[in-house]
């Protein structure tokens, strides 16, 4: 632009000189030089205009490229912010899943401890039942012995009638106690069986629920890892 202004100034000067030379007829030779210089200056001016036009087109193209790049940068920044937001959400989701997994593991541990405690109780009840059963067998053997003794002492009925009545009374008490013991044993076995069945069912359901939750958590974590990759 500065060169264009200089050339325009020179051109105006040349035109002024040409007009001045046209008025002076006594000096035709300098007028030709001035015309030649004016043509050269016009050519330079035309070339400068062409260069300016090309440079303007180049500047316009560069401005368009800059605008396109700025638009791309805005789009990429938007995508990056959205990806960062998604990443934060995924991290929160992973932390939530980890906390749930930890809670499920703790619940499973507590369930296992409860199950072990119940197994110990059942084992103790089983041992107690076995001891009571052995005691009942012993009582049955004694009853059998007493029955044999009764049959043996029937011949001595008249002599040992009083003693036999006492033994019959003891035997009746013993039989009533044995019946009560058998009823208690039956009720105890029924209660223990029901409790064991209910506890086994609850433990199986709890373990199945925990396993399902663990499988779902693992699937979600694997999906998120694949998504991040």
**Series of secondary-structure elements, N-terminal to C-terminal:** HHH
Instruction: Give the beta-strand count.
Output: 0
Could you give a short account of the major beta sheet? none
State the secondary-structure class.
Answer: mainly alpha
What low-confidence regions span 5 or more consecutive residues with pLDDT below 50? 25-29
Q: Mean pLDDT, rounded to whole units?
A: 83
Which bin fits the share of residues in helices? Answer: over 70%
Verbal overview:
This is CNTLN protein. InterPro entries: CNTLN. The protein starts with a helix and ends with a helix. With 229 residues, the chain is an all-alpha fold. The longest helix has 125 residues, at 28-152. Mean pLDDT is 83; it is low at 25-29. It has helices spanning 2-23, 28-152, 161-228. Helix 1 (2-23) packs antiparallel against helix 2 and helix 2 runs antiparallel to helix 3.
